[in-house]
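This section describes the prediction task in plain terms. A model, or a person checking by hand, is given the sequence of a single protein chain and must write out its three-dimensional structure as a string of tokens. No templates, partner chains or ligands are provided. The sample shown here is typical of the held-out split.
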Amino acid sequence: MKHLVIIGGGIAGITCLESYHYLKPNDKITLLSSSPLLKSIKQVNRLTKVLEEIQVEQVTIDEKIEKFTTNDDNNNITISISNVYKVDTVNQLIYSRSIDNNEEVESKIHYDYLCICTGAKPNIIPMKSN
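The expected answer:
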């Protein structure tokens, strides 16, 4: 079993997670996001040969992880709110910081595969209240 680490919880990171999980459902996947909200593609409509309309949804980590744990019984996907501050490609290690019970916690994660899907900075979509 291999371990994929994905840095970034935007559309590219979530698409990477979903695609890799589809191809390798038994491999371990860790997604590190600096934002508690994740973005993914909800629907794609082809308008012309070269133009598509893409609907983006914004969900919490719990909502996204629920999708994988209810569709199959694999508990091999971890999504964490943390900031990556160092990537050691020689030893295949990711160093990150997260907040747990108001204390900063440092983590070191070993990976077999690494996918860096970072953007400039998280863009929070305003939610309409009903």
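For orientation: Residues 11-23 form the longest helix (13 residues).
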